[in-house]
Design goal:
- With 272 residues, this protein is mainly alpha-helical.
- The protein has three domains: 56 residues, no CATH class; 61 residues, no CATH class; 146 residues, Rossmann fold (3-Layer(aba) Sandwich).
- It is built from eleven helices and seven strands.
- A three-stranded parallel beta sheet has the order 5-6-7, with helices on both faces. Strands 1-2 form a two-stranded parallel sheet. The protein has a two-stranded parallel ribbon with strand order 3-4.
- The chain is elongated.
C-alpha cells in the first residue's frame, strides 16, 4: 500500500504534519499535540508514515544486545507513585549490595553471553555511607561533613561509622553545636562546608533540583573549580549538569577514562 492511499479520510491538519515529517522537517509542540489526538484513519496514516521513516533510516534488520541490570540498592528518597520497586531507608526490604555481589552478578551475566551491564538504583540517601566505607576498605582517610551537631547522628546507626572514620585517621566535621538535630536547611549548609574544604567540585549526575546543585552553587560563590560530566542524552536526570555547564562548569567527557585524563591534564592549572 502506498502512502498516498493511507491519506484518504485524514483531516487536513494531520495530513500537513505527516507530510512535513516525510519532508524531513522538524515538528513543533502543536504538531505533536495533533498527532497525539489521531484516531481512526489519522492513526493508521500516522503508523504508516512512522514505519516508512523507520525503514528509510535504519532498514528492516533488527539487532539486540544481551545485558543484565544490576540494582545495587532499592532504597530511594523519592516517592514516585508509579514505582513498585523503591523502599525507604528504614524499610526491612531495603538493601545495598556489597561490591563483591555486584561483581559476581556481572561475571555471571558474562558467562551467559551478556555484553552489557547496567548498574542502576534509585536516589539512595545512604550512598554517602557506601563512599565512606569504600574509602575505609581501601585504607584511605575520609572526611564526613554532616548536617547535625555531635551527639545527634542522623540516622543514629551511623554513629559506628563515624567512630570508624575517626579511628582510621579521618574526621567528622560540622558547624553546628553539639546536640543540634539535622534539618533540610542544615543539610544545605553542610554542602557549603563541603565546597569550602574541596579543591574542586565534580558533578557526576543530577536533576535540576538535585541536592548536588547546592554544592555546585556554593563552589561557584567560593571561586572553586567546578566540573560536570557532559550529559550523554536529553534525559531530565542530567538537567542539573546542563545548567551547571551553561553556568561555567568545565565539561568532562561521559567516558570515565577520558574524564580522568582530562582532569589530570587540567590539575596543574585548575587545582593548584
Amino acid at each position: 500500500m502506498s502512502l498516498d492511499a493511507v491519506f484518504g479520510g485524514v483531516p487536513a491538519d494531520v495530513r500537513r504534519v505527516l507530510e512535513r515529517s516525510l519532508d524531513g522537517r522538524d515538528l513543533g509542540v502543536e504538531d505533536g499535540v495533533a498527532l497525539c489526538s489521531a484516531r481512526g484513519p489519522s492513526l493508521h496514516a500516522l503508523v504508516a508514515v512512522a514505519d516508512h521513516l523507520r525503514r528509510a533510516q535504519v532498514g528492516d534488520p533488527v539487532g539486540y544486545v544481551v545485558n543484565r541490570n544490576v540494582n545495587f540498592t532499592n532504597v530511594c528518597a523519592k516517592a514516585c507513585r508509579f514505582c513498585a520497586f523503591s523502599r525507604t531507608r528504614r524499610s526491612e526490604d531495603g538493601y545495598f549490595l556489597p561490591i563483591e555481589e555486584i561483581v559476581r552478578r556481572a561475571l555471571e551475566a558474562q558467562s551467559f553471553g551478556a555484553t552489557e551491564i547496567c548498574i542502576q538504583a534509585g536516589l539512595a540517601p545512604g550512598i554517602d555511607v557506601a563512599a565512606h566505607r569504600g574509602a575505609l576498605a581501601a585504607g584511605v582517610p575520609t572526611v564526613a561533613f554532616v548536617g547535625y551537631g555531635f551527639g545527634a547522628t542522623d540516622p543514629p546507626e551511623h554513629a559506628v561509622l563515624e567512630a570508624e572514620i575517626v579511628a582510621s585517621g579521618g574526621a567528622v566535621a560540622t558547624l553546628l553545636a553539639p546536640g543540634t538535630p539535622a534539618s533540610p536547611q542544615s543539610r544545605i549548609e553542610r554542602d557549603r562546608l563541603q565546597a569550602e574544604h574541596s579543591r574542586a567540585v565534580l558533578l557526576v549526575c543530577t536533576e535540576i533540583d538535585g541536592g548536588a546543585m547546592h554544592a555546585m552553587r556554593f563552589a561557584a560563590e567560593l571561586g572553586k573549580p567546578r566540573f560536570a560530566v557532559e550529559p550523554p542524552d536529553d534525559d531530565p536526570i542530567w538537567g542539573g549538569n546542563r545548567v551547571c555547564i551553561e553556568a561555567g562548569a568545565r565539561p568532562l567527557p561521559f567516558n570515565v577514562e577520558a574524564a580522568r585524563l582530562a582532569l589530570q591534564v587540567r590539575s596543574d592549572r585548575d587545582l593548584e
